[in-house]
Amino acid sequence: KVGMESIAVELSESTTTEELLATINDLNENPNVHGILLQHPVPSQIDERRCFDAIDIEKDVDGVTCLGFGNMSMGINAYGSCTPAGIIRLIKHYELEVQGLNAVVVGRSPILGKPMAMMLLNLNATVTICHSRTQNIETIIKNADLIVGAVGIPKFIKTDWIKQGAIVIDAGFHPEKCGDIDLDHMDEISSAYTPVPGGVGPMTIEITKMLKNHEKTLKDEN
Q: CATH 3.30.160.60: does it fit domain 82-202?
């Protein structure tokens, strides 16, 4: 419907790092390929970071390369990781003011927690990154004006950790049909929150962001 062709390049589970790098290089050199997505996690024998960074930055539509992350962090035009970029779009869509807020991102993954923190920092929030081993995490979260749950543990963040009037964004989704935040009575506590399921929605975010990136690529070429 948007004129974008999707090609699946399937490799065996026994694929080596060098074989995957060769495939990525072929896609980098193919002028008809405008974006490359490496599905992860990859098999244990593959150097995932090396393969991510082999993707041409102009085709890094999921924001997984170190260079792409660095450019995004510095406010230089770059593709951002899909889910955090989608969260920022959600914040802007509902005209939620982030500037000056104490924002806590719970999670430090290279595709969610870390880019999320940098995107919020670029919007002039004061950002703290926490994770499953952070000491006094309850106290830190209780002082947050905005919380992003991205730790990958079901209901890790408890309802009574959330202060009245906070903005609550749950980026997690688990088989139990819950996220990283216990959302019980959240409508009575928060000023705004994303339900799970039906909130951030990782697949919806990825598809939306990918379509936007595809549109941007076409505009840049024309």
A: no
- What residues pair up with 130 in beta bridges, in sequence order? 106
Is residue 155 over pLDDT 60?
yes
Return the amino acid letter for 188: E
Mean pLDDT of 34-63: 94
Domain with CATH 3.40.50.10860 in the chain: 1-59
Task: Name the residue among 84, 221, 206 with its Cα closest to residue 148.
Answer: 84
Which residue, 79, 83, 110, is CA-closest to 179?
A: 83
- State mean pLDDT over 90-115: 93
Q: What is the pLDDT of residues 190-204, one digit of tens each?
A: 999 988 866 665 444
Report how far residue 84's alpha carbon sits from residue 150's, in angstroms, rounded to the nearest whole number. 10
Supply the angle between the helices 113-122 and 82-93 in degrees, to the nearest 10. Answer: 40
CB atoms within 10 A of CB 66: 12
Residue 100 CB coordination number (10 Å) = 11
For domain 1-59, which architecture applies? 3-Layer(aba) Sandwich (3.40)
Q: How far apart are CA 81 and CA 86, in angstroms?
A: 8
Task: Please list, in sequence order, all residues whose beta carbon lies within 8 angstroms of the beta carbon of residue 87, skipping any fewer than 6 positions away.
Answer: 116, 119, 148, 169, 171, 200, 205
